Amino acid sequence: MENRLTQAFDTNTFREEGHQLIDLLADYLQQAESAKDLKVIDWQEPQATYEYWKNYQFTSSSQFFSDVIAGSNHLHHPHYVGHQVSPSIPSSALSALVASLLKNGSGVYEMAPVGAIAERLVAEEFAKYIGYGPASDGLLTSGGTLANLTALLTARQEKGSGDVWNDGLGANQDLAVMVSGEAHYCIDRAVRIMGLGADGLIKVPVGADFKAQPEALKATYQKAVEAGRRVFAIVGSACSTATGAHDDLVAMGEFARQKGLWFHVDAAHGGAALFSQKYRHLLHGIADSDSVVIDSHKMLMTAGLATALVYREGKHSYRTFQMKAQYLFEASQDRDWYNMAKRTFECTKFMTALNTLMVFKQYGAAVIGEYVNHTYDTARAFHQILHQHPVFQTIHPAEANILCFRYFDPTLSEAALTEINKSIRDRIVQSGDFYLVQTTIQEVFYLRVCIMNPKTQLSHLQSLLTTILQFATPQRKA
Ligand SMILES: *Cc1c(COP(=O)(O)O)cnc(C)c1O
Predict the structure, then answer these.
(1) Is 176 in the pocket of ligand 1 (CB under 6 A)?
(2) What is the chain's percent helix, strand, coil content, to nearest 5?
């Protein structure tokens, strides 16, 4: 082999670099978790980061990794209260390293014996907690967005008219999906990708609690029918992304049965609560759904991207991408359940099921329950504080670990309130003191906190409020 290539595959170098890397990461985790001498983010403008990495001179792998860490957002820092991605359980990151090195494409059993079977095992574990019976089966996709699209494609094959997958839309452009007005935008995208257009998404109005109103289901459906739409599926959010509100899955399931619809539950975020005795009631009714999506990278604390799509009746999953000829051929045979690529979008797919399987095998479902309890409990306690505080306004109770609120001064106009809250958010992120996000709900701007880090305590959130109040005062000259 040529010199560079020999170097690149030198295992002694790997051994040395690997040992250095683990030391570097362990030191980093200690520093991040203690929140000492480390900001949650070292904010740089995008152009500056671009210039830095464009001109970066590589000296050693440990320097490279250390510079990557320094420039990144620190999810293991207790002041990370931003997007719904949990810090990885460190051993799950080790599993991700193994998965990356082995690089077995888990769509095909013989390409990834462990990876393919791990998918099945992970899906089975979820199915058990969802309450599905033995006919259940599932698979993993790269993210909830793709899993929701896949579920809706299955739903259309099962409950829509005709065979759109093989014949095209034809006269079936009038198909539609009903969903909460607060659903994640990926459902809207999925419906458009399916060729149903913007009007293919029928939004059920939400009440003051940000849940799809059960009493509005019938009228919404009726209105869609009158507008010439044929609804084939209804999607429940468990929970909604913006506020963490859980739709009434019992009412939705009943409605789906009455109308012969596919009932899909988007539990990308909140599905983890199934593992908590204390909070699993939030998902009451989920066992009567046809399919469920749960993200591992959000509330299961796994490294890498992995989303389970679980079907109440596994046989439905074979219809999603099935060609006509194949159908006839396979009807007479046992399905090869171990070749997942038949049922998923992806061709090559990382064996990320391993990271989820690792968490289940090493710590058991109990670790997820503890995590849910801590983060949901903390959000409730934080809500209490905000609710009683004279200068903060909350708009919803904490059902999950998500909370929207804003700095509030009744003497200010709405425009001024938006401006001050925007400036608070920007200045906090730029200071690196905390990482929180923002959202607009019914045209009002809010600060949004997701308690994703098991090390985030109420005391950290108290100091977030102190920081907000500091930044709420007019900008002082340094
Ligand atoms: C995050 C989220 C999604 C999207 O999942 P990704 O894994 O980010 O693609 C879908 N639905 C809900 C309710 C979510 O919270």
Answers:
(1) no
(2) 50, 15, 35
pLDDT in tens, the chain (478 residues): 679 999 999 999 999 999 999 999 999 999 999 988 899 999 999 999 999 999 999 999 999 999 999 999 999 999 999 999 999 999 999 999 999 999 998 889 999 999 999 999 999 999 999 999 999 999 999 999 999 999 999 999 999 988 999 999 999 999 999 999 999 999 999 999 999 999 999 999 999 999 999 999 999 999 999 999 999 999 999 999 999 999 999 999 999 999 999 999 999 999 999 999 999 999 999 999 999 999 999 999 999 899 999 999 999 999 899 887 665 555 545 678 888 888 999 988 888 899 999 999 999 999 999 999 999 999 999 999 999 999 999 999 999 999 999 999 999 999 999 999 999 999 999 999 999 999 999 899 999 999 999 999 999 999 999 999 999 976 444 4
- Contact (CB, 8 A) for 298 and 269: yes
Name the 3-class secondary structure at 448. strand
Looking at ligand 1, which atom is closest to the CA of residue 307?
7
Ligand 1: which residue has its CA nearest to atom 2? 268
- Token look-up 């109308």 returns 259
Is the minimum distance from the CB of 189 to ligand 1 under 6 angstroms?
no
The token pair at 400 is 């999950």
CA distance 431 to 409: 24
296 lines ligand 1 (CB under 6 A): no
Q: Return d(Cα 65, Cα 200) in angstroms, integer.
A: 46
Distance separating alpha carbons of residues 41 and 83, to the nearest angstrom: 14
d(CA 177, CA 151): 12
Atom of ligand 1 nearest to the CA of 148: 10
CA 405 to chain centre: 21
Say which residue the tokens 């009451």 belong to: 284
Side-chain half-sphere CA neighbours of 173 within 13 A: 6
Strand order, beta sheet including 437-441: 392-394, 402-407, 444-450, 437-441
Residue with tokens 């539990």: 267
- Torsion angle defined by CA atoms of residues 288, 289, 291 and 297, in that order, rounded to the nearest 10 degrees: -90
| 3-state secondary structure (DSSP) of residue 253 | helix
Q: Please give the number of the atom of ligand 1 that sits closest to the Cα of 238.
A: 13
State whether the beta carbon of 307 lies less than 6 angstroms from ligand 1: yes
